[in-house]
Amino acid sequence: MEKAVRAYAEVLRLVRRLPKESRGYYAKYARENFVNYRDVDPSDSTTLNDLFNRTYNHSLWVLHKYSVDDSAANKLKRICCG
């Protein structure tokens, strides 16, 4: 649970780097996804690892879409993939 909260907080920090007009959409999108997966069994490490990897990869995709340097996601990478 703690890892998910840290990942969510970092995703919201990355959302702040996006253009102002798109921040609300991506903040809402992130919240909905984290809420949808809150009931995942913590003992199912394969599913959790997949979700964290998708979190990181999707964040990179969004950063690239808006030409934000993906090095901004290094902390998220450490949380999700490290």
Describe the structure.
- This protein has 82 residues and is mostly helical.
- It has one domain (2-81).
- Helix content is 73%, strand content 0%.
- The protein has helices at residues 2-15, 20-36, 45-65, 74-81.
- Helix 1 packs antiparallel against helix 2 (20-36) and helix 1 (2-15) packs parallel to helix 3.
- The mean pLDDT is 91.
Mind sketching the topology for me?
Elements: H1 2-15, H2 20-36, H3 45-65, H4 74-81
Pfam family, one: Complex1_LYR
Domain Complex 1 LYR protein: 5-56
Protein name: Complex 1 LYR protein domain-containing protein
Radius of gyration from the CA trace?
12 Å
Helix content: over 70%
How many helices does DSSP assign?
4
Q: Count every beta strand, where a strand is a DSSP E run of 2 or more residues.
A: 0
List low-confidence stretches: none
What is the rounded distance between the termini? 16 Å
User: Structural class per helix/strand content?
Assistant: mainly alpha
Compressed to H and E, one letter per element, the order equals HHHH
- Report the sheet with the most strands, covering strand number, pairing sense and barrel closure: none
Strand content: under 5%
Shape: globular
How much is the average pLDDT? Answer: 91
In total, how many domains does the architecture comprise? 1
Give a brief description.
The chain has 82 residues and is mainly α.
Q: Which labels suit this protein?
A:
single chain, 82 residues, mainly alpha, 4 helices
